[in-house]
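Teaching assistant here, posting this on the class forum so everyone can see the example we discussed in section. The complex has two components, and the goal was to see what a joint structure prediction looks like when all of them are supplied at once.
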Amino acid sequence: MVSLLFYLYLSIILFLIGLFGFVFRRNLIILLASVEIMMNALIIFFASISHFRHDATGYIIVFFIIAMAAAEAAVGLSLVVGLYKRLKNIYTEELNLFRG
Amino acid sequence: MTGNDLAFFYLALMMILSSLFTVVSRNPVHAILSLLVLVLHQAFMLYLLGSEFLTAVQIIVYAGAVVVLFLFVVYLINLSAEQRFRVFVKKTSLFMIFFLLFVFFFFKNFGLILALNPQLQSLLPIDSSANHLKMLARYLFMEYLFQFELIGIILLVVVLGSVFLLRKLKEEKSG
């Protein structure tokens, strides 16, 4: 009964929730967590297409997505910690260093 | 309705609820813990999609490394005194334009995915009688070997870069 469309709609809903969090939240750590939610939506997308079409390419891409997500989290969180060390602030609206 | 369908609906409901709670939660620790709930449910959804190896990778890498890294940073940056301020950005109108543009193009192009040709020949066919892990390993190390090595280089650069970003700037402090 559960077809490919159910998985695609689930991945779209998760992606839009992550996009909402990325656009509207103030906290930089939650912004990175929203990026992780979007990556989870992509993982469901590729794995479901791979499962329903009997093609292993999607599983390989999921493997690469997980590796890239780990790399992205490490770099992003080290940037957040560096920002907090210099400015004592991680809220997006108050990071106006370049304002004239 | 079979057991697989019930499992899918339970996992989908829990994933949507936990990701919503991650986005709207005021306390960052609660947000990251509900991200952990999302990742674990997603791991079992990968099992439902027929890949037990990716379930293991998801639990080890995501739940074991990424979410714990997030928790460490939340504990390192102590912002508990500022929780009483607002959660979302103030000037929402400009952001709302971007968000709605994204949503518009997303749904405008969704038909392209649905129009996938089902008769298309599969690139790397799955032999359901063979071992799943053996099949994935063969494809990963024969068809995608260059990309696999590239991932190794990227992870090396990430290790060096995250140390380099957090180094002490001694000359900046003295001067």
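For the discussion questions: Chain A has a mean pLDDT of 88. The radius of gyration of chain A is 17 Å. Think about how each of these relates to the inputs above.
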